[in-house]
């Protein structure tokens, strides 16, 4: 058996198709020698590996770093200036809309009495918009009498850089406000302090709206939050980083598993990843930005935000930058538990269901003025621990149906970083089958390779967006 394990470790089996051959990698956070660039293309400030982001490549869909990939097939809907004129939104569908500078727009939903509703709104300003740290959006769900169920807001923060920001309107069944079924209204407002959007004052912000509902439980459970877990942050994972380019929207977020991951970002660019978490599992994340030549300081140079399966804000971190390599860890999150919703801190109450937890990376556009156009190397260190267990039994079906589940297809699509471990699927087969002998192992490895390539292909097929 030890020989088999040694062979598996030597092969360094990942959970995704092998990457293209690249130049030797430096340790995480250490800049590498610059790669040749095409004539007339600015040299990268902090080069990254081949296959991540090459000089001259378009930084995102649409040829600009601020481009956002909306969900395929999203329906276009216009917001109304009055609740009585609001267009109907259906849970489980994704919509596109727009918000003018002085916008205050309404949309309408029909909700069942026992369903908790989540309506995430992602605002995408123009890439050349001028914003302040307090600019952003505010959303709320309101009942038929105009009573607000809850408010949520999202702002651009210290990076002073236009980027996609997301806030969730919410109606919780069983609370004192907003009870009963019927018509509810989503109100979306633009926060644009002191006319800071003067550079693009006549251009609206694009919106993506993705309503979802959660049914009540089939049987009553605990109504108090579980004991707070330890607040100590575990040591970041060690190991050689693997290249993993993110998507450009929630719908195209690329799956990540435990491991050390690297990508290249240009100033103003945003990338999306997702980590499937089962009930009882816990996410830890660290983000790092490599060094670059130049002198100065940029507040909020790198922003990492975490969102739950319905895009609710869980936590974030922002790195100030002086050109020296730097990293920071996300504040510890609790294991995924249904009863977390009864806690008070946002970083606990939003970790309330299993499913895809999104990691959103943004590199401030202001870096270009002091440290060049990049690309800059960004490293993510992801650790997932905790014991998985069965979730609660719902009295109905969530909408979308699988928004709060982790399917076998999800598990197969998740790559595993090079952290010295052996692929869990391989070890599970070895343990169950009691395989011994070189021939059987080679057959197993061949089958695994085919399965991994199929999984990589399936990774592009997304679950319904919530």
Written description of the protein model:
With 466 residues, the protein is an alpha+beta fold. It has 6 helices and 21 strands. The strands form 4 sheets. Strands 1, 3, 5, 8, 10 and 11 form a 6-stranded mixed beta sheet that branches. Strands 2-4-9-6-7 form a 5-stranded mixed beta sheet, with no helix packed on it. A 5-stranded mixed beta sheet has the order 12-14-21-16-19, with no helix packed on it. The longest helix is centred in the C-terminal third of the chain and has 21 residues, at 438-458.
Biggest sheet record: 6 strands, mixed
The Cα radius of gyration reads 23 Å
What percent strand? 25-35%
The number of E-state strands comes to: 21
Q: Helical element count?
A: 6
Task: Identify the overall geometry.
Answer: globular
Which terms summarize this structure?
466 residues, disordered N terminus, six-stranded mixed sheet, 21 strands, alpha+beta
Write a short abstract of this structure:
The chain is about 10% helix and about 30% strand. It has helices at about 1-10, 345-350, 365-370, 410-415, 425-435, 440-460, and strands at about 75, 85-90, 95-100, 105-110, 115-125, 135-140, 150-155, 165-170, 180-190, 205-210, 210-215, 240-245, 255, 260-265, 270-275, 280-290, 300-305, 315-320, 325-330, 355-365, 375-385.
